[in-house]
């Protein structure tokens, strides 16, 4: 019995070496070789565009390389189509048209939209012409057939939508790129301005305070501004809390300098000449002080005093002061020769210890106190013009003396204060120019400032170019930005730069800061109308394809198309109505109806609401898929399979309308995926999830629901199954658009982070600007500060001449300026400043300076001086009462209206009222501190006040520091009225007394008083009773009349 063994024949390995098999398989290598060659050529052509170092500067080279890359792609695709058609009689489709269009609009280095649009339309025309003209007569299209003509129109509409999608993408990217440049430019400029503002703020603050004291005050001002922003109903309180800002410096040198014949200058020179002279002198002194590291403290009219070794320890501070004093003498001699004026200077220098700091709560001014400060002042006062009057202690600190030393003056030896402290003095005459700095005048300073400004502008340009290189545009910068944002922090060398970049998640592209992510997602979408326009066009295209497919005979399809297009049209109208109205009525004043206003509000609510935008987005995607669903439901698979098999067996042409065309459906899905990803201001992860679900759902339908139909459709390569070709097109579309949308989202988030930082920079700049304004108002009067901020440059001369200004000097007596007493002085000055705040709204009393225990103020320096009391302001009650009472008094006395000349003279009465308030405040302070367990002598201080009025000159002088001061005979006389006055009295000149009498105030004649520089003059005391109230003339007369009537009545009764 023969037993047959069963076995399986496996000839798969051997057949690979058969000639016929190899001949058939060699055909695939032609396709692979063409694709590889095309890839290599495209890469070589585009490589220079990806490498800026290799890219020529000529712009047309970018267009040339882009066109060559497109030509290689299109020619490869069409040549393979032609080859397989003629050699193997295979008709294949192409998805390279869609991929090529995506490449043109998204990946090629074409800088402008129009060339990309022209190139994209050209590619569409080439592909359409090839399949229509070359293949239409035999296989794919028959122009004479209406159905085939409809499919041709569908193909054209698809090409139109892909080009429209690409153009929309380029427009959006153009907007993002230009917005990025503008935002970055503004960001850099704001950053530069902020640094400049902070530097200016520091300069202004350091002009009145050294750094060790200015820092806490600067932070306090910024904190108060931020607090006022959070509590907008609360005004900014510029006054500081009463913090003791005083430091002890045990080893410094003090210099006092006084211009000789200054009083003569004030009476002989014009306003401009005097201010120009002082400005030039003090500017020279400031430059020399900067060279010799000497800290100028302040001006006192014609007095200039400074300290060496104050801001930082300096072992040569004594030598610096002496050299600076000689330089001052040299400078004033140069000016004397130049201007032909009889002026000179006395200089006093002493070394020792002092207390330095800030007193008061307004008009912060840095000052020094101590017995050694008084010694330096006395040395200046007892010195000789053209000499430095120094103490023995200062000379002992000179390591290598090189000065000619002479004995001190007789006045110094007889000075009680110098004798009390056993000060031995010496004179150093000016013989040799000690100057080691070049001659600089104000013009040279301005030239230096101009050169500095040019360097600053040049640095701004360089910084802008460097910042633009960091922007996330272009292939190289995108790569670098992704690398910077997503790399590990610890491995980067420049950690500060990385920390300045937005922190974005590597997978979800989300801000790691939830607050930032929330604010980003809830931005208003002002580009929504363009997204809706694109969505409407895509919807119209899908409806047209569905209409052509169903020949307009399916009732469900018509209803779905009408509902979709009607709803999309309504949304399009809502989003575009506002822009259409703007285009129509932007050049004219038009009143809109209630309906228009309602439509505006609806559109704005959609733009601002993320939930509403997401709803519109999801409705649009669902509408698209509803159209596709109608097409799928209209297809009978079993009938199509039977008809298709019979057509192959019996060789007849089947009905093409029996079922959907797979490539049309695939193209529709690709458009929907593109629309899902490009919709603006929708969360990125939502768009990715939606588009991915669309692709997966469609591929499931391809492989499981309509496998037979898709399998027997055209493929893109003879060796590539059709269903895989469809899937490949969907995947390529999804990935290409995903990565481009990822880059767009990345750029958007970087731009948003920049805008957030820009807002922060602007806010910081605003605070710095406010801080500068507050600091300037603490240095200058309000109107001068505004002029200085708007029109005055540094070192530029500013002066004013006033016809009527009241000046006040108020000095504390029996008050020792040592450290324990400075705290009490700070409390008293702060209380004075509190009273001053009541006079700054309507009456504009300005605090000028504090000199030791002397408080100097003026009224009438601001042209906005009010002649009408503002009842709405919280003005101090006594001010209102006294001014109204004085005006009633002058009306009674004059029995006519309030004249304009008397309005100007009212500054005298207002300042006198302020002086009386200071006396009341001092009395209150003495009572409040009566029970404090400290030295009783501190609180027994009394105060004398001197007031004068008349023409005053004011101006900003100096080079290194902003300093505002006033000069004139009224200033000198007010100082003399104070120094020659009595404690508890307000002493005024005869002219001022006459003005006060017009307002009904009693002014009691004191007698003839010797005034330095003016001789013997009559002076007066303002009438004040024991309750610190003014004595009025008409009240005294009324009181006298009442006394007389009472006495007469008593005498008549006695006689009766």
From TrEMBL:
- SMART domains, A to Z: CYCc (SM00044)
Membrane listed as a keyword: yes
Locations listed in the record: Membrane
Q: Outline the extent of the Guanylate cyclase domain.
A: 253-380, 796-978
| GO molecular function ontology, one term from the record | adenylate cyclase activity
Needed cofactors, names only, are: Mg(2+)
Residue spans crossing the bilayer: 28-47, 63-83, 90-108, 114-136, 530-547, 559-577, 614-633, 660-679, 688-710, 722-739
What does the record give as the reaction this protein catalyses? ATP = 3',5'-cyclic AMP + diphosphate
Tell me one GO biological process term: intracellular signal transduction
List keywords of the entry alphabetically.
ATP-binding, cAMP biosynthesis, Lyase, Magnesium, Membrane, Metal-binding, Nucleotide-binding, Transmembrane, Transmembrane helix
Official protein name in the record:
adenylate cyclase
Q: What organism, scientifically named, is this protein from?
A: Drosophila virilis
Q: Which gene produces this protein?
A: Dvir\GJ11622
């Amino acid at each position: 019995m023969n037993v047959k063994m069963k076995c399986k024949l496996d000839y798969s390995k051997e057949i690979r070496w058969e000639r016929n098999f190899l001949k058939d398989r060699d055909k695939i290598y032609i396709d692979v070789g063409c694709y590889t060659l095309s890839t290599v050529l495209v890469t070589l052509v585009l490589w220079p565009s990806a490498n800026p170092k290799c890219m020529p500067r000529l712009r047309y080279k970018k267009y040339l390389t882009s066109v060559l890359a497109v030509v290689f792609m299109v020619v490869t695709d069409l040549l393979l189509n032609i080859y397989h058609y003629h050699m193997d009689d295979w008709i294949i489709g192409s998805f390279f048209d869609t991929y090529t269009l995506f490449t043109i609009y998204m990946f090629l280095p074409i800088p402008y939209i129009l060339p990309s649009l022209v190139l994209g339309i050209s590619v569409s025309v080439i592909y359409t012409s090839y399949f229509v003209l070359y293949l239409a007569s035999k296989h794919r299209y028959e122009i004479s057939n209406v159905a085939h003509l409809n499919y041709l129109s569908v193909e054209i509409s698809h090409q139109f939508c892909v080009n429209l999608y690409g153009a929309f993408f380029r427009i959006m990217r153009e907007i993002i790129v230009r917005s990025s440049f503008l935002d970055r430019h503004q960001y850099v400029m704001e950053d530069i301005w902020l640094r400049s503002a902070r530097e200016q703020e520091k300069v202004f603050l350091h002009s009145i305070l050294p750094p060790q004291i200015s820092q806490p005050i600067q932070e306090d001002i910024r904190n108060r501004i931020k607090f006022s922003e959070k509590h907008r109903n609360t005004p900014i309180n510029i006054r500081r809390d009463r913090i003791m800002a005083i430091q002890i410096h045990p080893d410094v040198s003090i210099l006092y300098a006084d211009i000789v014949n200054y009083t003569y200058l004030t009476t002989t020179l014009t306003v401009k000449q005097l201010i120009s002279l002082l400005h030039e002198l003090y500017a020279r002194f400031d430059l020399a002080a900067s060279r010799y590291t000497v800290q100028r403290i302040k001006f006192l009219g014609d007095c200039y005093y400074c300290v060496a070794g104050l801001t930082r320890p300096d072992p040569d501070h004594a030598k610096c002061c002496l050299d600076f004093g000689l330089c001052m003498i040299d400078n004033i001699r140069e000016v004397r020769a130049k201007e032909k004026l009889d002026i000179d200077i006395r200089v006093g220098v002493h070394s020792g210890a002092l207390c330095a700091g800030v007193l008061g709560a307004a008009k912060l001014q840095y000052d020094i106190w101590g017995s050694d400060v008084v010694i330096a002042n006395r040395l200046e006062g007892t010195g000789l013009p053209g000499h430095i009057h120094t103490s023995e202690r200062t000379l002992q600190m000179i390591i290598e003396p090189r000065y000619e030393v002479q004995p001190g003056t007789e006045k110094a030896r007889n000075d009680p204060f110098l004798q009390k402290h056993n000060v031995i003095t010496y004179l150093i005459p000016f013989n040799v120019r000690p100057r080691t700095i070049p001659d600089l005048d104000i013009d040279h300073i301005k030239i230096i400032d101009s050169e500095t400004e040019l360097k600053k502008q040049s640095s701004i340009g360089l910084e802008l170019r460097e910042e633009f290189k960091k922007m996330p545009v272009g292939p190289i910068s995108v790569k670098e930005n992704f690398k910077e944002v997503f790399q590990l922090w610890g491995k980067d060398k420049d950690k500060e730069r990385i920390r300045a970049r937005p922190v974005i998640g590597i997978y979800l592209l989300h801000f790691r800061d939830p607050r930032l992510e929330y604010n980003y997602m809830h931005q208003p979408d002002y580009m929504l109308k363009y997204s809706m326009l694109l969505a409407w066009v895509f919807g119209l295209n899908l409806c047209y394809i569905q209409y052509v497919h169903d020949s307009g005979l399916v009732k469900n399809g018509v209803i779905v198309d009408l509902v979709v297009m009607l709803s999309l049209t309504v949304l399009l109208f809502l989003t575009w109505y506002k822009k259409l109205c703007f285009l129509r009525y932007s050049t004219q004043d038009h009143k809109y109806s209630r309906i228009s206003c309602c439509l505006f509000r609806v559109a704005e609510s959609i733009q601002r609401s993320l939930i509403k935008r997401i709803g519109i987005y999801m409705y649009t995607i669902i509408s698209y898929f509803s159209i596709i669903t109608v097409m799928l439901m209209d297809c009978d698979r079993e009938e199509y399979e039977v008809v298709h098999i019979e057509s192959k067996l019996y060789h007849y042409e089947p009905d093409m309308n029996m079922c959907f065309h797979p490539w049309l459906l695939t193209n529709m899905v690709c458009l929907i995926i593109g629309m899902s990803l490009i919709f603006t201001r929708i969360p990125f992860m939502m768009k990715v999830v939606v588009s991915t679900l669309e692709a997966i759902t469609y591929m499931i339908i391809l492989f499981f629901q309509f496998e037979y139909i898709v399998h027997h459709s055209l493929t893109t390569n003879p060796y590539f199954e059709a269903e895989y070709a469809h899937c490949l097109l969907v995947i390529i579309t999804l990935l290409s658009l995903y990565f481009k949308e990822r880059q767009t989202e990345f750029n958007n988030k970087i731009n948003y982070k920049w805008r957030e930082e820009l807002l922060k920079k602007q806010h910081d700049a605003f605070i710095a600007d406010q801080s500068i304004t507050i600091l300037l108002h603490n240095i200058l009067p309000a109107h001068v500060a505004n002029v200085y901020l708007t029109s005055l440059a540094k070192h530029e001369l500013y002066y004013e001449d006033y016809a009527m200004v009241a000046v006040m000097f108020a000095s504390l007596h029996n008050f020792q300026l040592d450290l324990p007493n400075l705290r009490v002085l700070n409390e008293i000055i702060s209380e004075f400043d509190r009273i001053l705040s009541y006079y700054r709204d309507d009456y504009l009393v300005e605090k000028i300076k504090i000199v030791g225990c002397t408080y100097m103020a003026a009224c009438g320096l601001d042209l906005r001086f009010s002649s009408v009391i503002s009842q709405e302001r919280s003005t101090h009650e006594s001010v209102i009462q006294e001014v109204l009472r004085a005006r009633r008094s002058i009306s009674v006395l004059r029995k006519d209206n309030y004249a304009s000349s008397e309005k100007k003279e009212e500054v005298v009465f207002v300042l006198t009222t302020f002086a009386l308030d200071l006396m009341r405040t001092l009395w209150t302070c003495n009572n409040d501190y009566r029970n404090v367990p400290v030295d009783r002598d501190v609180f027994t201080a009394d105060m004398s006040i001197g007031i004068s009025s008349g023409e005053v000159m004011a101006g900003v002088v100096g080079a290194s520091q902003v300093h505002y001061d006033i000069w004139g005979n009224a200033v000198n006389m007010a100082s003399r009225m104070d120094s020659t006055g009595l404690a508890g009295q307000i002493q005024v000149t005869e002219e001022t007394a006459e003005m006060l009498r017009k307002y009904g105030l009693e002014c009691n004649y004191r007698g003839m008083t010797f005034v330095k520089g003016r001789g013997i003059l009559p002076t007066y005391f303002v009438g004040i009773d024991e309750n610190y109230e003014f004595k009025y003339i008409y009240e005294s007369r009324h009181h006298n009349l009442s006394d007389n009537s009472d006495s007469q009545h008593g005498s008549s009764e006695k006689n009766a």
